[in-house]
Amino acid sequence: MRWAGSLLRVSTTLSQLQGDPAVLVNHALGVLGCTIVLAQICFYGGANADAATVAASAGRQTTSGVLSAALMWRSLGGFGDGDDDTRDLDDKALRANFDAIDTDGSGA
What we know:
This protein has 108 residues and is mostly helical. The chain has helices spanning 2-16, 21-46, 51-75, 91-101.
């Protein structure tokens, strides 16, 4: 489905954006990448894998991806542990903290 969407984006880029090279290359690389993945599926797993095996594999990959994302979120301080340890800083404290990391003094 992603392959078809990328292919459609290539055609609309050619017709509506007069083939803008920056946009066209981006979508063409999407088509190329999807084509490679589809070719690998056909070559390595298409003839020997049944639908249940492919679905189970996709389920494991999704579960591991969600688990990895949850662990990453937790390591960044997400989910909380019941303790409300967030601090409400006033504008003066926020400005002082920002000024401490503003190396060039631009304020941006």
